[in-house]
Design goal:
Length: 661
């Protein structure tokens, strides 16, 4: 019997449960932008294009007065990152419809979009000037003649850490009939990151690193460049990374985020004079990572995690005091934009057991009102329920997670338990609904599993002290958090202790790899893009500071801590059947980690299967391959948790469900 027939049979038994393909077909709304005059909200909708094997994004428009919604862009290629002109009459956006990502502009009423750039090198990001006359954008720009000549003579090669193409700022006069980009910064001294216009449209503040290498993120500093003469002044030159500058309303100061990337430490908010001088750090007592949004006359607005929720906060730049603006307490808030007078804002919002929407609210008496109705896609489906679950780890630290129960859950029955572990480690799982992408959660629940998604030590939202519990304790403390959560659920009486599985991607894959070699508590494990050996990881990854920050050493300085926290160290203990999934071009967790674990398990005689997804990096981000990832996981746990034998969907082309058009 083919996999597709068995899969259909399983789904028939679980009526109205979304299939893998239906989950992949779920549309998502994001990137809201309220117009300065408050009349419109532009936002994006992403949906699956099976023919092109892509997730396409188009821009939609909502009228705040009437609630009317309509699709604004219709090109075959995606359109994203909508940005309003200050007079609310034009909307600029990015699209790769002509082969490379360029800036286009369109009327909010619709019609044809006009390209503003045909720029060699494409456009990374852009911002309108407050006076509406100019757009600044970042780009690598045209390839240099030196590199072109070198390719012609020698072919293409790269000198590691010595062959960078810097990102720089460019400006565009949108009033010109044929706007021509002009370089605002140049040279090999830095590579530009985020940037922000001054209120008078005469300067641009930006962050820049010494080069575009991710491992150089902690070299980010804050600069200001004048449009009149392109004079660049460094405002902040401090240890650690400084990024995301925002101007004070009077243009005399710049606020920014200060802190190390790939670290357990909190970021802080710094403020410096726009002319330079000694910065001051404010709101140091705020125990999470603030993400600056804007500086208004009422204070500095920023977003931050709060356990499994996220909120908008207001910071008093003089006193350093902070207050939460958004409600209710369990809100998942993000991507805030404001009207010109700051009386209203648009944002993304979700709450427990609800699908994310684009919402709006008045600033006075904050109350989220959905603009979209993405939840309508879930009508007629029988879905699992989500709730926050808390337990104590082996060392007494409280741990939270999301407990997912089948729709017809009966506490008098015994259920298999599947642990799904997020990445990061500073990721976080939340109790809202979302389309399944890597693990078929809804199908597992319909099949009769309880699912635990632990926010293990190191997760965002719980403060710096909680994240620091991972320092020189990676894997070990994480395993204790997971196993103690399993034990807490077994103690509830409704878990079958002999049918427990674990899976995760990235850091979640690392923890799952650790569990498969360090513990015999699990019946089956799936390791997605996971670390098996910190030494192997360190010399291959594109973010070398990560291990130095968390393990507090290089492998040459302290080989023992690298061994102690590596799953491969415990390979002789391994007994658990393990599925390994990896992208062959992964630079974040390079594929030698997968091969090392696979060979170790095979040498030990442990049932193991490794699937390599061709042409993918750390994320498997195309729908057909995401379908394969989920079906491979469904087949693996069906075999080892439920005792079923289902042929892998990759073994025959006819085994995979037909694609929807």
């Amino acid at each position: 019997m083919k996999f597709s027939i068995l899969l259909s049979f399983v789904l028939t038994l679980a009526a109205q449960t979304p299939t893998i393909e239906q989950s992949l077909n779920l549309k998502t709304a994001g990137s809201p932008r309220i117009s300065p005059d408050g009349r419109f909200i532009a936002y994006t909708v992403s949906e699956t294009n099976w023919d092109e094997n892509a997730f396409d994004t188009q821009i939609w428009m909502a009228m705040t007065a009437t609630g009317e919604r309509y699709q604004l862009t219709h090109a075959k290629k995606s359109s994203s990152d909508p940005r309003w002109s200050p007079d609310s009459k034009r909307l600029a956006f990015l699209s790769d419809r002509d082969g490379s990502q360029q800036i286009y502009v369109i009327s909010p009423a619709g019609g044809e979009a006009t390209p503003l750039t045909h720029f060699e090198g494409g456009v990374n990001s852009f911002e309108w000037s407050p006076d509406g006359h100019t757009i600044a954008f970042s780009s690598t720009g045209p390839e240099s003649k030196v590199k072109k000549d070198r390719k012609d003579k020698y072919g293409d090669f790269e000198i590691v850490t010595g062959d960078y193409t810097m990102v720089h700022l460019w400006t565009l006069n949108v009033e010109d009939e044929k706007p021509k980009p002009e370089a605002l910064t140049s040279g090999t001294q830095f590579s530009v990151g985020g940037f922000n216009w001054s209120p008078d449209s005469k300067r641009v503040a930006f962050s820049a690193t010494r080069d575009p290498d991710l491992s150089s993120s902690d070299t980010a500093d804050i600069y200001v460049v004048r449009l009149s003469d392109k004079y660049v002044k460094k405002l902040v030159d401090a240890p650690g990374g400084d990024r995301n500058p925002v101007w004070s309303p009077d243009g005399t100061q710049v606020a920014y985020e200060s802190g190390r990337e790939f670290s357990f430490l909190n970021n802080h908010v710094g403020i410096v004079s726009a002319e330079g001088g000694k910065p001051r750090i404010v709101a140091e007592s705020f125990d999470e990572d603030p993400r600056l949004v804007v500086w208004s006359a009422n204070g500095i607005y920023f977003e931050a995690m709060q356990r499994t929720s996220s909120h908008l906060f207001r910071l008093n730049p003089e006193t350093g005091s902070t207050e939460r603006v958004s409600d209710p307490a369990n809100l998942q808030f993000g991507s805030a934009t404001f009207t010109k007078d700051y009386s209203r804002l648009a944002f993304t919002c979700a709450s427990p057991n609800q699908y994310p929407e684009v919402c709006t609210s008045a600033m006075a008496g904050f109350t989220p009102h959905p603009v979209t109705s993405m939840k309508d896609q879930l009508k007629g489906w029988k879905l699992a329920t989500r709730e926050v679950f808390e337990w104590k780890s082996k060392d007494g630290n409280p741990i939270e997670g999301i407990l997912i129960k089948p729709a017809d859950f009966d506490p008098s029955k015994k259920y298999p338990l599947l642990v799904v572990i997020h990445g990061g480690p500073t990721g976080v799982d939340r109790p809202s609904l979302a389309g399944d992408r890597t693990y078929p959660i809804e199908m597992f629940a319909a099949k009769g599993a309880v699912i635990l998604r632990p926010n293990y030590r190191g997760s965002a939202g719980y403060g710096e002290k909680f994240r620091a519990l991972n320092v020189r304790n990676l894997g070990l403390g994480d395993a204790d958090d997971v196993i103690s959560g399993v034990d807490a659920l077994i103690a509830k009486g409704y878990i079958d202790r002999n049918r427990v599985g674990s899976m995760g991607w990235s850091q979640g894959g690392y923890i799952s790899a650790f569990l498969t070699t360090y513990s015999d508590r699990f019946k089956a494990v799936s390791v997605g893009a996971g670390i098996s050996d910190w030494m192997t990881y360190y010399v291959n990854t594109d973010i070398h500071p990560f291990t130095r920050n968390y393990l507090k050493a290089t492998p040459w300085a302290d080989p023992e801590i690298y061994k102690k926290t590596s799953p491969i160290t415990y390979i002789n203990n391994a007994k658990t059947p393990t599925l390994i999934q990896h992208g062959d071009l992964d630079k974040r967790v390079p594929i030698p980690n997968g091969y090392e674990l696979y060979q170790g398990l095979k040498d030990r005689g442990v049932p193991a299967k490794m699937v390599v997804y061709k042409g993918f990096g750390h994320a498997i981000n195309k729908p057909k391959q995401q379908r394969a990832v989920m079906e491979h996981n469904y087949e693996w746990f069906s075999q080892w948790i439920w005792g079923e034998t289902l042929p892998s969907p990759s073994q025959t082309a006819s085994s995979a469900p037909a694609a929807s058009k």
